Amino acid sequence: MALKLTFACGSYDRMEPIKDGTVAPDGIDLEFLAIESPREIFDRMAGVQEFDASEMSSSEYIARLGTGDCPFVAIPVFPSKAFRHGFICINADAGIDSPKDLEGRRVGVPLYTQTAAVWVRGHLAEEYGVDLDSIEWVQGAVEKVGAHGEPTAMPLLEPVNLSRNDTGRSLSDMLADGEIDALLGSRLPDSLFTSDRVVRLFPNYRAVEREFYIRTRIHPIMHLVAIRRALYEAEPWIAGALYEAMARAKNQALARLRVSAAQKVMLPFLHADLDEIDEIFGGDPWPYGVEANRPTLEALMRHMVDQHFIRAPISVESLFVPVE
Known about the structure:
By secondary structure, this protein is α/β, with parallel strands linked by helices. It has 11 helices and 11 strands. It has helices at residues 16-19, 38-48, 58-66, 115-128, 171-176, 191-194, 205-216, 229-234, 237-257, 270-281, 294-306; strands at residues 3-9, 28-34, 53-57, 72-81, 88-91, 106-109, 136-139, 162-164, 182-184, 198-200, 221-228. The strands form 2 sheets. Strands 8-7-6-9-5-10 form a 6-stranded mixed sheet. Helix 4 links the parallel strand 6 (106-109) and strand 7 (136-139). Helix 4 crosses helix 11 (294-306). The longest helix has 21 residues, at 237-257. The chain is globular, with a radius of gyration of 20 Å. The two termini are 22 Å apart.
């Protein structure tokens, strides 16, 4: 009899074959719980271990692992990756012409501990020499009043200049009105599209991100797949079964993109993008497993040490349980 498990994840194209049952993990009767808010998934999983497995913030998982008492294990499946240079927005009147101009400024962030923010700060420090300690970080929801979710993130090992947005206004509106100088994180503010006072720090972000990947082989990982540790220790075979099924699902999604008849997604230049993927990524822009993602995972580890999430790097292999 198949083992019944719940899995919470967004409805990404690489997960659709799992969601619709086209691909099923061997020996598992998997209930796919489609939840389109990653923050909700993280809060429910980290807070009360509500699911057997779920997508999980990479930085929050690694921070817990660094304490030596993590209630989860992970497999090297990455539901979410995203280049992040294009997610740094600035007030056009703030006099910010380069990343170094962010020093000494007030910069909004949905959640200081979110993986996207870790990556952007890592880029600013490592690529552009920005002194992160000189920045006042203002934390809050981007498009509404209050906090971004109800996280149970591990405390930082060192204090940072972080304040809570208690103005009664969203970070997006504050950026447009010049109350903060910049905003970075996991999503673009609506004010980027509604106000001429909000622009990207890198207007040519696609070219910047392309060069960054070619030079570093880093494609920033946002989320991995976590499994309740107690469940894994009782049924260790499920890690391999889930990994194999999710790898097949991802490959099916990539194959669907390559269908050259009627396009299934509204991207007019899709096939030119696929040519670029072949050129830059060797045909697979979303590999799973450790080795193909080693430069990315090692960079994330550096950033998490530098930003006081963990005291020392954790070996990349130690992040994940065996899947073969």
